[in-house]
Amino acid sequence: MLLRLSLGVLPFVGSALAQAAAQFTDPDNGITFWGITDVVHDVTYGYVFPPLATSGSNPTEYIGTIVSPLVNQWNGSVCSMIDSLLVAAWPNNGEIVFTTRYATTNVLPDVYPGPVITTLPTSYVNSTHWKWVYRCQNCTTWVGGGSIDVNSQSAVPAWCSSTIAVDDPADPGTSMVQHTDFGFYFFPFAEAHVSASVYNNWASGGTGGGTTTSTTTTTTSTGPAAPSATPVDYIIVGAGPGGIITADRISQAGKKVLLLERGGPSTWETGGRYTAPWLEGTDFTKFDVPGLFESMFTDPNAFWWCKDITVFAGCLVGGGGAVNGALYWLPSDEDFSTSSGWPTQWTNHQPYTAALKARLPPTDAPSTDGKRYLEQVSNVVSQLLIPQGYRNVTINDNPDDKDHIYVHMTLSAANAVDQSPHTYKPLSHAQTSSSKWTHMCGTSFETAPQITGVKTNDTSVLNGIYPLNPGGRVILSGGSYGSARILYRSGIGPTDMIELVQGDPVAGPLLPPSSQWINLPVGYNVSDNPSINLVFTHPSAFLIFPSRPVLKNIFLSYDNWADVFTPGPPAADAAQYIASQSGVMAQASPRLNFWQALGATDGTTRWMQGTARPGAASVTTVYPYNETQIFTITAYLSSGIKSRGRLGINAALNALPLVNPWLVDPVDKSTLITGLKDIVSTLSLVPGLTLITPDNTTTIDEYVDTYDPSTMDSNHWIGSNIIGPQGKAVVDVNTKVYGTNNLFVVDASIVPTLPFGNPHGLIMSMAEQAAAKILALAT
Ligand SMILES: Cc1cc2nc3c(=O)[nH]c(=O)nc-3n(C[C@H](O)[C@H](O)[C@H](O)COP(=O)(O)OP(=O)(O)OC[C@H]3O[C@@H](n4cnc5c(N)ncnc54)[C@H](O)[C@@H]3O)c2cc1C
Ligand SMILES: *[C@@H]1O[C@H](CO)[C@@H](O)[C@H](O)[C@H]1NC(C)=O
Ligand SMILES: *[C@@H]1O[C@H](CO)[C@@H](O)[C@H](O)[C@H]1NC(C)=O
Ligand SMILES: *[C@@H]1O[C@H](CO)[C@@H](O)[C@H](O)[C@H]1NC(C)=O
Ligand SMILES: *[C@@H]1O[C@H](CO)[C@@H](O)[C@H](O)[C@H]1NC(C)=O
Ligand SMILES: *[C@@H]1O[C@H](CO)[C@@H](O)[C@H](O)[C@H]1NC(C)=O
Ligand SMILES: *[C@@H]1O[C@H](CO)[C@@H](O)[C@H](O)[C@H]1NC(C)=O
Ligand SMILES: *[C@@H]1O[C@H](CO)[C@@H](O)[C@H](O)[C@H]1NC(C)=O
Ligand SMILES: CC(=O)N[C@H]1CO[C@H](CO)[C@@H](O)[C@@H]1O
């Protein structure tokens, strides 16, 4: 099979960057590696470095590890890759054979002689696994000027594996096939250093514990000189769509509000200055320009992702709203109905949705010249849909009309500048009580049930605590994963999660005594749209940027959006955007969206959303195809989904899915299959249109059966702090956490069921309504 995978992975089409490294200790030797265990093959990769060059010796080496299962005597190779330097290994007759290769082109890489590798004594092959612990010297810089920045906070190394055995397993210089699978992960090189004495002990085969030299963030301030922070009426933790809107509306009502955001600024207006080289000298950051959306997933300096959440989550001002595709659908009545799980008091959403619409008007033609660009995909896909009875509508004119409609992609962007949710920003920030509010991580709450303040990692205030005025309230808006974690760290949630916090040396001692823990289903009931990609070719050229990059290495081929950040779009498109915010860069990659109701065998109705865009993140076909002709339809199952999963934390307090929520319910799966078959049912009516993934050697049923569940992630997580009745839910009708007097949650996590489309429109309307309900409560 020809397998083309690209780094240009869209959030709603894949999750190649979904993992973040965490620290773990090898029980056989005490080495504290940083790394990951890839979720598909269960292979662990880790690295630990000597002290930073500035403070110690050995700046060019590291100790690495690979631990791999021996599934079915599988003896394919596994590799660990930093930039283009690849260290591959495989078992052979009870020993581990390894090689270093340097990958520059789309051919088999040559053996690369520079690195000096020593296998350390705690390596072995047992009946189920092989484990390799190795010292790699002369491994952090290489010919051609490449190097690892061992002080970087967010590098992106790769793992790769092949299920095909190397040609001659005894020979390190053997020829080997291209790796059949790979992934990337975030790696904080700056954290993964130990002292010289500890490193040198391990590097010479010694064992025993070591402590990292990196500064561990502690949440308590010990300085007696730190002053108490000024109390406020409301502390809102998290500046995503939920938190910004809530802060804005509550401060507008005259309350004194402190908004705390763990990340830094994003758009120009919020103080962000990170931008593409072609935008230098303008007031447009990466987060302002809709057309840069796909570069969120290809930029090696991806500081905006939360590094302690294993799925995509934005940790910066605007949260997910600053890094998302800004697809913007106003909620329908059904989205806020009791049958969707909302309490009766929430069904009158219209005034709040109208307030949102007035503040953040949707547009399906964001380019300031009113034109739409690169519409070939729309033209082809509408030819596919019209014979199925689809109608062309303007979606946000009538959000209740969703069956068999197709629409232009619709953005929350005013004048082709990404506005979500930044139109709310100036008001709220002008009215926060503190000029200092970013880079502040809320960690837990003081003294439930009556919360008196929020504990943060800010060492400049007494004990890191921001206090409330009498009658004050805390509103948690940290997102589906972030909010759940703060609750666990405050003793609120299922016991198994709080016990993990108890085991943490920093967070454990800050927990209240177990008699004060509040047992609520925090993290249960989560839902996310399962999404499946269909890839097509059509003779229309979909090439966005004619200057395709050279293939970077043996297994990565960039899709066409990869150029948008650097070197940038063609000069004329760049100039047009800078001069008048018009043209190709005025919108994100999707072009056409469509919806359809699907009757299901359990007697209920489920809905399917389709999103079409030029390019593809992954193609699997036995036939050759023309890369300039590919486009993707992502089909998501939306309203009516029954499947639920669970999220939580691990012992490192990283937040992660514990039980995947995609297609758990068999009727969800069969209904999505029906929808996919409907999409392609009119294929033969569109001249020149070919489905290449799955191709005609694979049925839709087989395709869905073998689809990697982790790539069904749509980043639309909801439900971890579900609203509903006492005993079943986490927050009550006013979004107050059960068992507390003054702790509220306003973010995606309270939403009981997924709406018709991408959720941030619904989440913002929800926040408008929640702010009104909270303000209406007697203090
Ligand atoms: C890559 C991606 C693409 C998406 N595309 C779309 C799309 O096109 N259309 C759409 O409608 N939806 C999209 N979504 C989903 C949408 O962005 C989210 O549903 C939405 O952002 C959720 O809003 P929220 O306020 O609940 O949480 P978030 O947006 O996650 O915001 C939470 C905020 O809280 C901060 N925070 C968390 N913990 C703490 C703490 N302890 N202390 C201080 N601050 C903290 C975080 O840094 C973050 O800023 C996408 C999401 C992602 C990740
Ligand atoms: C593993 O390698 C050995 C030696 O080359 C070979 O005989 C065996 O068939 C391989 N096993 C698999 C499952 O490929
Ligand atoms: C490190 O590797 C490079 C590249 O192969 C080589 O030129 C250099 O001599 C090596 N340095 C040492 C100290 O081995
Ligand atoms: C083999 O090694 C792996 C990795 O260290 C370990 O998890 C596993 O328990 C070992 N299996 C046996 C049978 O000893
Ligand atoms: C729907 O029809 C209108 C009027 O002909 C047209 O301007 C618009 O582009 C069409 N929308 C789509 C998504 O094709
Ligand atoms: C608090 O945490 C944030 C987010 O992790 C970080 O940027 C900031 O530097 C931390 N502050 C302190 C004082 O450690
Ligand atoms: C690929 O498709 C483009 C656009 O249709 C076309 O111009 C080009 O000739 C095709 N290339 C090949 C090799 O067929
Ligand atoms: C399958 O697709 C290939 C490539 O598009 C085509 O050449 C072939 O004729 C198709 N086979 C069938 C049975 O339709
Ligand atoms: C409102 C709701 O559906 N709550 C459910 C959340 O999950 C817990 C644990 O599975 C259930 O008991 C609740 O009924």
From TrEMBL:
It holds the Pfam family CDH-cyt. Residues 205-226 are annotated as: Disordered. Its cofactor is FAD. Gene3D superfamilies: Cellobiose dehydrogenase, cytochrome domain, Cholesterol Oxidase, domain 2, FAD/NAD(P)-binding domain. Residues 1-18 form the signal peptide. GO terms for molecular function: flavin adenine dinucleotide binding; oxidoreductase activity, acting on CH-OH group of donors. CDD domains: CDH_like_cytochrome. Belongs to the GMC oxidoreductase family. This is Cellobiose dehydrogenase. It comes from Mycena sanguinolenta.
